[in-house]
Amino acid sequence: MRHPVRGTTSAVILFAAVTAVAVAGPWLAPHGPNTQLDPIAMASLPPSLAHPFGTDTFSRDVLSRVLHGGRLSLGIAALAVTVALSLGTLVGSVAARLGGIADTLLMRLTDAALAFPRILVLLLLVAASGPLDAFTFALLIGATGWMTTARLVRQETQRLLATEHLRGARVLGVPWPSLLRRHLLPGLLPTLAAAGTIAFAAAVPLEAGLSFLGLGVRPPQASWGNIITGAESQVVRHWWMVLFPTLCIVVTVFAANVIAERISTDRRARQ
Question: To the nearest 10°, the Cα dihedral for 208, 210, 212, 217?
Answer without folding.
Answer: -80
